[in-house]
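Reply to dn_fold:

You asked what the input looked like. This is it:
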Amino acid sequence: MTIEIVTTGGTIDKIYFDAKSSYEIGEPQIGDVLEESNLTVNYLITPLMRKDSLDIDDADRALIKKTVIESSAAKIVITHGTDTMIKTARFLQGIAGKTIVLTGAMQPARFRFTDAIYNIASAITSVQLLPQGVWIAMNGQVFDPESSRKNVEMNRFEKI
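and this is what came back:
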């Protein structure tokens, strides 16, 4: 079994450009995170786009969906910005034969204190154990996108 990891950008991939005094989405960070974690599962990383999730539109979602449908992998993790992660998860529902888990981070993966590593680990584990369908792995929980939301004030995902 190979897990395909599709990267779309978001905070998880943000890096700080000191000369610009700003954060921008850089190279996908998940490869470094997984390499440092001594993972023993087979995985393939597909860098699809580098966008803030607020900039992801339905054409981008269609590209994500096409990538998932055409993938030979039955287990797929998608790294995604948290602001529109639920919208994309809902867009992906109904794809037969796939277990799809979206994850992201509230702090960039390069930060010393980040939730990225834990969220990635949760997604990698969840995609191996969950039934077919679309899920979100954030904050130590697995969420159904139809009954969850991002609580901006508390900086976490929660069931509704």
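The chain has four helices and ten strands.
Hope that clears it up.
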